Amino acid sequence: MRKKTFILGYQTLFFFILLITFSCCKSNFWVGKNYKKGYLIEEINIKPYGSFDKLIYKYDNKGKKRVRYHYDNSYLKTILIYHYDKKGNLVAVKSYDANQKYRGEFSYKYDKKNNLKEEYNIRSDSSVYGKFIYKYDKKNNKVE
Question: What residues does each domain of the chain span?
């Protein structure tokens, strides 16, 4: 009977070498970004002392980002759900924890020319903790 041998892929081996190398660092280090058909689908960030973050992105058939999963040391931490209007403008990014409990959102409003007009940061209790208003000149250049 033959012994089963575990062989690490180059990407996995590279990741673990970097994890060990930067485990004593005091700052974050983005180690890898994976793309598929031109879309960012995964990022890995090595944090101080060997811990890491992993971000996974999902897109719809039109190429719009729909979901971002954030893992902290292999444990799901947050989920972001992206919402768009009929014109393709991003209108909301809703945040949920690993148990799918609503944590808050970023909300966006646009003018008739599809310029971002207002941005709101909203807590889970619906209170607004940030509001940004943008103004444009006649040539659609952002002035405020």
Answer: 10-73, 79-144
